[in-house]
User: Fold these one by one.
Assistant:
Number 1:
Amino acid sequence: MLKEKMVDVLSTEGLNDVSIKHLTDSMISTSLRGTDSHGINLFPHYINAIRSGRISKKPAFNFVKGSNTTAILDADHAVGHHSSYVAMEYAVGLAKEHGMGSVAIKNSTHCGAVAYFGLLAAEQDCIGFAFTNADDLVKASNGRDSFFGTNPICFTAPLLDEAPLCHDMATSLVSWNKIRNHCMEDRAIPDHWAFNKNGDNVTNPHDARSLAPIGDYKGFGLGMMVDVLTSLLSNSPISKDIKPMFTSEISEKRFIGQYVMVIDISKYIDIQLFKQSLQSMVDRIRVVEPLDNSPVMVPGDPEKLSTVERIQNGIPIDEFRYKEYLEISNLFSNCLIND
């Protein structure tokens, strides 16, 4: 029901059908996985970005092939979920033919959770890597100011008896959307999540201007790696030069870059043997004796558990999102949510 209502609103705004499919599929699957910061909570923002022209309603994709295994996609400011998925499909095709494939994406927009398109590779019996840059929110290690975005990294691989392994992580300690959620709820943030304009640690979310990199200089280095892949390979802006997602004029283009890479496992080893070996690794990790009552998990386990629970009980929406959805319902005369 929720997806149908979202589709109605997006169709009314004139967004093309394929972009609608990828945007709604990504938002809902991401929220089911428990990543609320990048799921349906962003629907109001996407509506505003589409209405203002930041996101192209009918983009014209253009692939420029660099070699048998590389290409650049000019996304024409499409919904990032759509352009990144198309790029991953293209990279999978290259990998199936040549063993490996990679696509750098330029002139894109916010793509939600990179797991959405990262998982596509694993579903095709490949290993997948997916990256995106973003506006500078992560404080430079030992610096006062931010330089790189949260610049997430996603690694996926197929398992034998269950949904693929998926490690989707930001290179910051938390996402900026978590800071925004605490602001809206007027709740203090944990120590060392964020810093003020002087680079000092804060617990008041309203004072936050930058985020902590995960693992200090190590996470900052990973963020730099992501920027090299997503920016420099396609001659796109680096994080420091990207327009902010929420505080810049909503009509301004952001020129975000993404990057995907795919390895065809069968070009190295029998795919079933690989799946058995990875499944064995995962199973052995899960039976490691835990320190407390919480089980030892592998990357992606919390998301799998969340998906099962939320399919049964629904996706929760806080009162602030409820009000935003109610405003959209009234604006479009669409019962997206009932008062």
Note: The mean pLDDT is 96.
Number 2:
Amino acid sequence: MTPPPASSGPSSASGTGTDPGPGGAPRDEADPAPEGVASVAPHAPAAPDAEAAARRARRSRIVQVVVIVAVAVGIALVPPPAGVDPRGMHMAGIFVGTVLALILQPLPTAPVALTGLAVAMLTGTMTTDGEALVGFANPTIWLIVASFFIADGFLVTGLGRRIALAFVARLGGSSLGLAYGMALTDLVLAPATPSNTARAGGVVYPIVASLSRVQGSTPDSDASRRRLGSYLALTSVQVNTVTSAMFVTAMAGNPVAQKAAADLGIEITWGGWALAALVPGLLSLVVVPWAMARVYPPTLTRTPEAPAHARAELRGLGPLSGHERIMAATFVLLLVLWCGGSLLGIPATAAAFGGIAVLLVTGVLRWSHLAANASAWSTLIFFAVLVGMADQLDALGVIDLVGGAVSGSVGGLPWTWAFAVLALVYFFSHYLFASNTAHIVAMYAVFLGAAVATGAPPLFAALVLGFVGNLFGGISHYASGPSGVVFGSGYVTTKEWFRVGFAMAVVLIVIWGVVGTAWMGVLGLLA
């Protein structure tokens, strides 16, 4: 894929649409064709190779659809076990088929969700008045959508790029300093950017690519890419998994986990999540660039030109514009409300919409920005449908059935060992997924229910599995949207990714499993 330009607009850089497709390359469902690819004249004869590739793609899609339908029908035909509503197995078949389609991607994400919803309504598995559309009234879903629009403000005003350049100007004298500068940029933007792909592809990666090329590091050869670009690019992905885990609003799947926990009677507030992730998150941001420099070291360690390059670009940007100042002030206000809104009686979703109103009234954002953000609207459809399906599975008794089976597999173990096994299985099963969110939708509620059944403290288990839903995003080149962005750049090979991804997974598991657990013990979450 073509690396995202530094001036990526809101609709191209914001959203969940860049989750990797089946081949590992990022897929932008908001665009009919990759940007920068020349269109073919209507009457121009297609090359034989192109025709053959198109035929293979059609055959592959047909096979995918057949597999999806076969799996869905097979599950739907299973007689409902005791305690499960007669519609339960039908709903399970439709849900599993939808999730499988999200993984195989015969269609983009939103069309897959709409197709699954249509099947559920047409078969009578979900009623149109009280079940099928309930997800569209969920405030958590609208918090995600609102956060996409807020994130647009960083891109439209250029404030996100300015922040990144400011950190590079101060820390960029070495490859390690550059990595820490990128980490701080990601951390600052994370609370208000639910698309980790937007942060990675719209803000961080363009800076990484620019700095790497200035230092003579391009994907053209192994010697050139390993000079600096490979290290910065892959480190940015590992850092992104950490910042995504630190805030409910830093990755689109986190509110889904929050909602699933609430359905089990476990309340996770924005501030509670952030506080629990604070110590392991900050420690990870210190350790990850350093560990990456040893696991995957660049051949260039000193970059004395980088700060000067960043300062020159900052001079070119000029002083802070009025819109940048408004965006920064709105962002700070939102952080205050998200952290302490419960004391003021202001829900997180209400605060987010208040922030959008400020940005619209002051002209920082226009309605055209919001209307053009296809990824935000696709996310609304995708999450609303899947949350509604998950609620229906719970209401029909399927979640209790599956949770009981999973908890039974670790029955007899002390809850500490049982939960450790469940968390590790949840983590490494992500090798089977090409999206954090799809994994969370498919497995979070089941594993949380199983963990609670083994005796694990409910809030502790909900938070740990919520963190894991982000931390596994760097284990493969197809694991998440940011992974797809970086892999498509050509700076990292598949073999390198699997080796380094596994090594960093171990590092993160140790930090969050040991230090994170100790910190949550201090907070009283293990009682």
Note: Residues 1-45 have pLDDT under 50 and may be disordered.
Number 3:
Amino acid sequence: MREAKGMVITMKKYILPERSIYETAHYDVIIAGSGPAGVCAALSAARSGLKVLLIEKMGCIGGHWTSGMLCLVLDKLGKGGILKEITSKLSDIHAINILNAQEEIFSYDVEAMKVILEEMCMTENIDILLHTRVTEAIYQGRMIQAVVTENNSGTQVFSAEVFIDCTGNGDLGAYAGCSFDSGHPFSGKQQPATLEAIVSGVPPEMNFCLDERTKIKLRELMESVGIQPSYKMPTLFKLPKGNLWCFHVNHQYGTRHDSAWEITKATVEARKEIFDMVKALRRLPSWEKLTLVCTAESIGIREGRRIHGLYSIGREDIACGTRFEDGICTVRFAVDIHSLDATYGGGYENADIHVKPYHIPYRSLVAAEMNNLGMAGRCISGDFYAHASYRVTANCAAMGEALGYAAGLAIKYGIGLHQVDGKEISEYMIKAGYDI
């Protein structure tokens, strides 16, 4: 039942028919989600000789790199492997713009990124299924047997030996009954969502970049034409080609990752805010040609479920710079907690935690309650504060590469992911060029 304007309305109950569906195909590894973590997991697994299915809900692989239009790679310093390959391919076609050479921060051409990722996956004979959602997990005991998907072909069932959750929100883990944490440990609030945009016509004399000084300058310009940005540190940074800039300017507060209604509302509100900002800024001298080129196909969700793993990375680890024998990469990125509500005027904060370079242990990528489920990306096992540091995309790519290789070892030796020697994964990542 639900209430509407003082009335109690009884909702109809529908009984769905039972379904019996033949298996569509069997794979060695199935990866749900093709963002930076998912793509790198797929490539790593395929290079280990595995038959791989990569499932993606959007119309391109790459996740927040592409459909999310982030246009920025953070915390790449000291990371080699597949991420270095991707960067080199982008550089070869002049599709990157170095924003901070010392920290290896760069922007990139989104369309080039799409094509490069697709070509890399096709070269490794990875099966890609776009416009497809994983909607259920079929499991028994501590083993996932198959996933159920929905797309224009209808309902399908795919089985595998190993499954990797790269959905960002931990959807597959949740479908398999795994326990998880979400949001701030006391309030439960999640970091706000942001819809990215690309604009052109920024005045050439405006030397905007990623530092706080230019963010404050952009906010003051907005305020001068009556605009109060929901993100108090609005950001403009240059893209590689043409007079194109990434326009990172909004916060959608109270948007839960597991509410389609809230995500829809946030997307509509963010797009309108961006449109109104561009229109207002055109009133400024030399801003008359500012043009909204496009907004992202998917809004950026910063926080979802954090699936419980064999180890949970905590605030003590990131503050003390904990190093692990099974470390798969080194994280240097600061704690970056975007304002949990509109009352905080700073845009983001670090909760007074000063990060020392720390390791992500392989164990945090392995589900505690499923023997053949791994997680890569922001849904790995960690607390609210650690997540605010390791969630950026270069780290997600490293997690995916490590887990794809681990899947190969698990299948080779006929063991679960929880039985794979994490030291061997760490050694592999070092050989691949990671500074651990």
Note: The chain is about 30% helix and 25% strand.
Number 4:
Amino acid sequence: MALCIAVDAMGGDNAPNAVIQGAISALESADDPLQILLFGPTDRVQPLLDEAGVSSDLPLKLVDAPDVIEMTDSPAAAVKKKRESSIHLGLGAHKKGDADAFISAGNTGAVMATSMFTLGRISGVERPSIAGYFPTLRGFSIVVDIGTNVDCRPEHLVQFARMASVYTQHVLGTENPSVGLLNIGEEPGKGNEQVKAAFDLLGEAEDINFKGNVEGSDLLDYAADIIVCDGFVGNILLKFGESMTTVLKKMTAQEMERQQLPPEDQQVVAGVLSEVSKGFDADHRGGAPLLGVDGNVMIGHGRSNADAIEQMIHATADLVRSNVVNELKDAFGE
């Protein structure tokens, strides 16, 4: 039976064009049967589908969602006032079982708030969390939280570690994933009161493979499978990583110009740098899972292009097939 994914056509800076192209590409490149429910205003989306030449044979259906949640809208206003939005109706379809998952590259706060309102939390989870990917010399580490929860108690960090451990094991296939606590030093007793208390709680958790504190200088060298921090720190870390490629490319271009490298040599260097930079590029990672809600929700970068949307749809299909929601329920004793 084909998986069905609800897609927010209006989510992101490049919507709806990039979302439409990404959805079409995902359907064409899918290895297993896949269907897409595309939510957005018919008067804006249907002409673009017609222009793209979408045939009736393609398993893509447009569902009218006349309200549009802008990136600048407050989450509270989005939940209360725009009930006919693509986020509301898409999550509603997932809740009713008409779709197996929901994805959006739109307003993260609105997706988070509407997911909580529509799907609810898994029993025992106090704070759902978004888990992101951070590139290292040996693949990538999962960083959790990356901005959902800027003020956290120590027990919240433990829950983040537990949810990320389940995700990393069942979706990414890493057995007994290691967990590091982001801190200002490796030694026990380092950090603020929140982090010191979390260190003790993580060490006591039998279902978490806690390796201890991790310093910022160790992150790029693959300090652990999972890096735990509050959303304030995690969001700064993620955005710093995303900015690195732009800065490195500019610095490299300036230095090549200063050294008067021949154009052919500059092309070689630029090509190598472009390949190295892909790990920091959201287009190659797709989306980030919202863990802890009672459903499959994937959130994309606001700047997502068609390639990122395509990757996010495939990653969401893997999320559904892994049955991670039920695995999380087992982990939290539901």
Note: The mean pLDDT is 94.
